[in-house]
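User: Can you model how zinc ion sits in this protein?
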Amino acid sequence: IRTIHRSDYQPPDWLVETVHLDFDLSLDATTVSATLGIRRNGSHDRPLRLDEDGAIPEVIRVDGKAVAYTRDSGQLILPVGSETATVTFTTTIDPSANTQLMGLFASNGMLCTQCEAEGFRRIIPFVDRPDNMAVYTVRMEADRAAFPILLANGEKVAEGDLDDGRHFAEWHDRWPKPSYLFALVAGQLVANRDSFTTASGMDVDLAIWVRDGDLDRTGHAMQALKNSMRWDEQVYGREYDLPVFNIVAVSDFNMGAMENKGLNIFNSRYILADADTASDLDFDGVEGVVAHEYFHNWSGNRVTCRDWFQLSLKEGFTVYRDQCFSADMGSEAVKRIEDVRILRAAQFPEDNGPLAHPIRPDSYQEISNFYTATVYNKGAEVIRMMATMVGPKRFRAGTDLYFDRHDGEAATCEDFVRAIEEGAGINLSQFRLWYSQAGTPHVTARVEHDDASGTAALHLTQTIPATPGQPDKQPMLIPLRIAAHDRAKNAPGSEQLVLLGEAEASVSLGRFSEPPVLSFNRGFSAPIIAEVARNPGDLAWLAAHDDDPFARYEALQALMLDTLVARVSGGDASHDAVVAAVGNTLASWASDPAFVAEACALPSEAFVGDQMLVVDPDAIRRERRALQRSIGQTHEALLRTIHAGTATNATELSPTAKGMRKLHSLALMLLWASDAADAPALAFAQFAQAGGMTDRQAALGILAHMDAPERQTALDAFYARYHDNQLVLDKWFTTQAFSLRADTPEVVAALAQHPDFTLGNPNRVRSLYGAFAGNQASFHDASGRGYALLADLVIALDPKNPQTAARMIPPLGRWKRFDESRARLMREALERILETPDLSRDVTEQASKSLA
Ligand code: B3K
Ligand code: ZN
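Assistant: Here's the modeled complex, given as structure tokens:
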């Protein structure tokens, strides 16, 4: 398998500048006639090379003459004598056999495409790389009854009826684009239509296309789209640039969604939502992903990536943009807490394992494996740090310069950094290391107070752990928002931004009569692991008094984490400080329910494990439950009050109402953990009487942990009510895979045989196996059956859908963090995967790197 290196970049020898595609569409035999206008790029006499992946024309003509071509490792090579030429050919493809869901595929009787990163070459041979931008015209012809709706990028320029019940439509996209943004949809679809007028007065026809019957679940997505369009005008000065914007929801999709120019294609889980079927998390997911894909119109489409090593140029920036948008639409503090939780759950383990890579990777075998939390979420943190250092006004000047300078280009991460440097007026020389160095920096912080002089100083150090291929690291530039609080005065200290650029540094904190309490990395200003010497008393004080909500959250989490880690490691640390601090926070539930719910939720089992040299999954599960029990028992009366008092509004989507619901179920969880005798009845009542999916799903999740008979009753009732709704049925699988019960591995194995389980639908695969792999103590069952289950899945899924199969491998790659027996079983699972004949490049790369 070939490794592609970033340093080997060369511009393409030939550019395709215009593309005419003529599709004769059918589910199992679609023909594509292509006319490509090509131009020699620079002065050379090299042949034209077209990337291919299975769709091979019988004849290729250059300026009308058939030419002999050769094939070499995924490319067709043909001689072209002139400077410009017209290349024509026809391919035939079978969308219904396309189980990879890359290129043109069938989903529920409709046809749709997914081309990022390298799917276009599965439709026609092409210069299939993002630095080749072309203007596309697409004609589609199909049976009108089977495919009444025909959509492609840009605008519809012609349509009409043909003989034999057939019809056609022709679309033209005026904006040059790379092939990965090509899209086409054909099927029986209905639209939720709306309109938007841009700041400069252009009317845009908006449509969200879904299957008949799903129309009344598209309102939230439409509102999110209009809000995103306005927000990008107001915050970044970016307007939409076509008179139509179409979104299509499909059920079988490898990723969340795709930002194709003028024709976004979505996994239906990020479009369809109503109160009966979607939880608050689902509603937020719809809003965030709709915004993310819309924002790509500028950060991704108008300015695209030169090559796939630059993926974070569009993804990191666009995630940062959608995070800020969601914060503006809801609660900024809660959004930041959620985003940091995701970063810690998904990216920190990646940075600390065999698959660690910089946000701008140096090499890959299969680019699909690099759509990672590092490229996306750490990439967003890197953009956020730049914004923090220069402030909103200067950051906007930087992004204005970036968009203006690179509009219509395929740019690099370096182009972005340079635009921020010039536009915002800041030197980012050292900061650039965030693009090239992998690994999460560890920063220690220690406050030193001199009683005699009454001054305090902050001593900082940074180290960046070695990662694959990067044994030695240089110190990075780390922006740290800090404050020193004077406990005696009971007033928050003023915030300062410390730029830590050395391995060691000291900062003066000013004059204090007593040692100040340090509020560190406020708002999580840098994506680091902070090691702060603080006592439980200071943490409890910060949890109650810090003026930065994230720091308040973080202090309570740190207190919980310290207690859990100490106990899991065999100490007998008391629960008292945590129980008291949680009680103190719970007491203010009525004034800020959303924050209280975030702060009082215990750190996940996996995050506790991440703090330990060797993860002990069973002890972590036991101790986490024990701490919940202490909290639940001590505060039982208050928790009952909260549970009763938060059962107010089941469906309103305001931050307060969402916070109430989160708190409602947190209270239920803690009451269950307290061993209250009526917990099953209480949970079942919440389940049965729920006015919306948030309360219903959370109650079901808690019931799923129980031994009580209410558990099966609720699972059966949920199945009976929702088994026709695939997105809700996914929740039924997930809930059982997340169960804390000892029999979860067997339950998962049985669910894999359930008639509703299928390897054909990526959402279903993730709903069962993705959830199970995230259930630490169950997946890491000492028997190794969890590992065997995941390996069986990867082996069975790889021939059908290598991309989704490869995404299941990273949990097995964490073997270095576990005891010898588990580590051996995990390695055996990886080895068994690698011994499978005809393994895809996707799975081979992930499994072999995971073993190293
Ligand atoms: N750009 C797409 C990613 C598609 C990747 C497929 N291998 C989704 C997004 O980030 O918006
Ligand atoms: Zn994206």
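A couple of observations from the model: The first helix runs from residue 219 to 236. The pocket of (3S)-3,7-diaminoheptanoic acid (ligand 1) is lined by residues 116-117, 255, 257-259, 292-293, 296, 315, 368, 371 (CB under 6 Å).
User: Helpful, thanks.
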